[in-house]
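User: I'm new to structure prediction. If I give you an amino acid sequence, what do you actually give back? Let's try with this one:
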Amino acid sequence: MNQYKPICMGAVPAVGHSAPARLCPMPIPHSQPVTAERVFAQRFSATRRGARLARLLAGLQLVEWGHPRGGGVHDTVTSVVAELAANAVLHGRVPGRDFALLLRHDDGRSLVRIEVSDTHPARPVPVAPATDEDHGRGLVLVGALSTRWGVHDRVGPGKTVWAECALATGAGKPS
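Assistant: Good question. You get back a string of structure tokens that encode the predicted 3D arrangement of the chain. For your 175 residues, that looks like this:
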């Protein structure tokens, strides 16, 4: 015996009947336009191999999303992923902890958002390296390739470094 009473959704019981009407689906109005947002999320070991794998899997995901290798969006996003993942491994590494990569392909805003989270509390600081130094240009490159980037706290220890890249090649930075 069913202990639950059915709920009438969009139908009214016939006059004179005490039994509830059958369930019938009602259309749900959309108050906001539906936008396509595709997401890729993965955790990686905080090693050079993990940073390389993050770049390779981001590239594969971009191909799945319709951005072929050698295209402007593919090359820009994979370069930004490579730099942020390398920073997470070299500067944000905490022994025994991973880093996370999140890609959001947002058709509504016409951008790809890249987020790399690690457990180190120190926030990255862009520097102006000397011309003879072979490191220190990662965040400068991220700033040049992305429309905007930044850092925010995350749930738990550490921070998330994010960057947004335009889907239209040649869109450039906003003025």
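You can read the tokens as a compact description of the fold. Here is one thing that stands out. Residues 7-11, 170-175 have pLDDT under 50 and may be disordered.
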